[in-house]
Design a protein that fits this description.
This protein is mainly alpha-helical. It has helices at residues 11-19, 24-31, 35-42, 50-60, 64-68, 87-103.
Length: 124
Amino acid sequence: MAYITGMAKTMGEFIREKRGKRSATDLAHETGVSENTVYRWERDERSPRGRALVRLADALGVHPRELTVDERGTHRAAGPSAGSLTTAAATELWEAIQEIRVHVGLAEGAPPKQHKRRSKGAGR
């Protein structure tokens, strides 16, 4: 659809472009969905919702808003589930996830902190 001059890319086209040479299987694994789901997103038969939208954005290295709105502020065409997560909610969720990642030491590729397990009865 985006091949017409001036038209924004659909969500599926944007996902496919951002996936690049990475396999759909790898992207599916990173986002916790099936490979078939990734292909449906790319064909605009479905669109990511809720947590899947945020996980997909994280895996692609973009803000969730970029998946739903193009650089001109136009909503991207998407599948039947479009609009299930508002842009404001996606932004809020993205920011919360980033705060959690900083808290647990996952920010900017840092390895997760190792937590010591207490044995039963420890500290009593």
